[in-house]
Structures are given as C-alpha cells and as structure tokens.
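Input (structure):
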C-alpha cells in the first residue's frame, strides 16, 4: 500500500510531486541527445499523464465536497487494462470517495488491473461494445447506464476532460529549458493539447498516435483547446503511421524494441504508449525528421502497470 498523498485536495491543490527531466544516458541509442521528462516517476500508481490529467477535475470535485459536506462518486470508463481506471480508483480511495468503472467487456473477463481497482473499492460494471461507443460519443450517456445518485461526477475515457489540460500544461514550467520539440503518445490527444496550452505557442509538439485512423484527433485537439479556454494552437504535428496495427496491438518487433530499449537505457517503457513513441523516435531520427542540434524532450507518460497485460 502506497501512503504518499497524490494531491492536497483539502488545501491549495499543490502536489509534492514533480518529476525529473533526464538526458538519456546512452546516446548511441539514438545518435542525438534526447531528454526524457520522467512523469512515470511521479507516483507509484498515479503516474504519468494520469496525475496531470486528474488534478484539476479532482480539485473542482474536492471544492464541491467541502462546500456540500457530501461524499462524491467518481464515474468513468475504460478497458480491462486502463491506466486511467487504475489511477482513478486509487485517488478515489485515497480521498475517501466512491468510484464506479464502466468497463468494456463482460463478467467473464478479469485482469490484474481490475483486481487492483476492486481492491480500492471501485465498483466495476461491464458494458458491451455498442454501449461503450455511445459512452464515448454521446455526452451524458453514462447517466443511462449508472444507477442515479447524488454527487456523481463523470470523467470521460482516458480522463480527457477539458479541465485535464490545465494539469498537463503545468509540466512545461518544470522543464529545465524550453525544448524545440516535445514528443508524446496520443490516445485521445488531451495530453498533447495540454502541452500546447503550456507552451503558449512556443516550440512544437509531435504526437505519435497509438491507434489506427487517428486523423480525427486534429478535431479533438481543437475542441479540447477551445473548451478548456486556450487559443487554437497549431504548433504540432500528428504522426499516424506508428500504431503497429492499432490500439494495444503489438508486433514482435515492437516488443523486442521495448525490451532492448529498457535494458540499454534503464528507462522502463511498455508497448501500448511509450514503446510506440520511442520506436517512432528512432525511425524519425533515422529519416532525418529532426535537426541534429534540435533540443528534444520525450514525455514519459507512465502507464507501466498496463504492461502486465502484454506479457
Ligand atoms: C500511459 C499513457 N500514455 C499516453 C496516453 C495517451 O494520452 P491521451 O489520451 O491524453 O492522448 C495514455 C492514455 O491516457 C496513457 O495511459
């Protein structure tokens, strides 16, 4: 059991947690200097972009709690290896909140991630594929699925609420310098949008889509920035050809790459998100995509618990 508090929900929202930005030790890996913002080290459970994305939505809920004196229920969705469900179950338990996870699948399914969530008190409710899609696409649809109650708060898939961008934006101020380029994995692209918000038009962000047919993410980035109250920043590129077959699909080559990279760099990565980013980085460097003197930071978005599903 981890006792470190993730957010100070009762105080000013300041967290004791920050992460280092490290120069990748073994420069022979990529042939150019690469910095890694190690958000995987933020917290043993609520790490990476989960920490960043949950912060402001949770602070708003905590304020509501203080004002009303009632206990909230966090309601959210994800797959059976979802990093977001895992982190949400943890922060809910730590804060004394209830939590409900709507999980794509059926009661015959299980995973170490689901067991962790249940151990934290999260109520797991399975939904079939069409319902899951509707939860993703139709605002407030979750209210048709979850038994109604008071003080229920919805977090969309991946925790990608517009308010999630504010927490991601904060990490820019933790960097030791403003890089030319930040490389990041894109699922919903909320993390990428948060980086754009924090950069305020400077530099560029290169997003590596981890799912197939990801061009629609351009629209999502614009929507999230707008709904979170930021300008329509365009200083990013979305690269859509390193998905390795689709979301959570892994080729033997990618698996080998993750293994070799972790061994040589001593930086753990997994094949669903960060593995695809570092693999893309290697290929992009080979193809001359970056200037040799470009100041490059890769955001390590954590998610290492999910690797348990890939073994
Ligand atoms: C470890 C990890 N990295 C990257 C992402 C992608 O983040 P986003 O959905 O904000 O694009 C996720 C999903 O939230 C994730 O769990």
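Output (sequence):
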């Amino acid at each position: 059991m981890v006792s470190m508090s993730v957010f100070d929900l009762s105080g000013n929202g300041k967290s004791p947690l920050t992460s280092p930005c490290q120069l990748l030790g073994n420069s022979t890996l990529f042939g150019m200097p690469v910095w890694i913002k190690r958000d995987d080290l933020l917290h043993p459970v609520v790490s990476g972009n989960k920490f960043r994305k949950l912060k402001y939505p949770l602070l708003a809920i905590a304020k509501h709690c203080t004002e009303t004196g009632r206990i909230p229920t966090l309601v959210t969705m994800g797959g059976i290896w979802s990093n977001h469900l895992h982190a949400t179950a943890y922060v809910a338990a730590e804060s004394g909140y209830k939590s409900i996870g709507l999980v794509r699948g059926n009661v015959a399914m299980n995973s170490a991630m689901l067991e962790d969530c249940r151990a934290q008190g999260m109520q797991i409710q399975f939904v079939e594929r069409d319902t899951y899609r509707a939860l993703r696409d139709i605002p407030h649809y979750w209210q048709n699925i979850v038994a109604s109650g008071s003080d229920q708060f919805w977090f969309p898939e991946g925790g990608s609420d517009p308010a999630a961008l504010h927490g991601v934006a904060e990490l820019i101020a933790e960097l030791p310098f403003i890089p030319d380029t930040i490389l990041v994995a894109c699922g919903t692209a909320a993390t990428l949008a948060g980086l754009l918000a924090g950069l305020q038009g400077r530099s560029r962000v290169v997003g590596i889509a981890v799912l197939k047919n990801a061009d629609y993410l351009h629209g999502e980035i614009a929507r999230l920035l707008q709904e979170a109250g930021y300008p329509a920043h365009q200083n990013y590129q979305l690269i859509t050809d390193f998905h390795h077959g689709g979301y959570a699909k892994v080729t033997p080559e990618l698996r080998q790459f993750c293994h070799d990279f972790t061994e040589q760099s001593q930086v753990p990565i997994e094949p669903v998100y960060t593995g695809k980013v570092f693999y893309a980085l290697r290929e992009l460097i080979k193809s001359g995509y970056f200037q040799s003197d470009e100041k490059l930071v890769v955001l390590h978005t954590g998610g290492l618990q999910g690797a348990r599903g890939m073994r």
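Notes: The radius of gyration is 19 Å. The chain has two domains: 21-48+162-310, 51-159.
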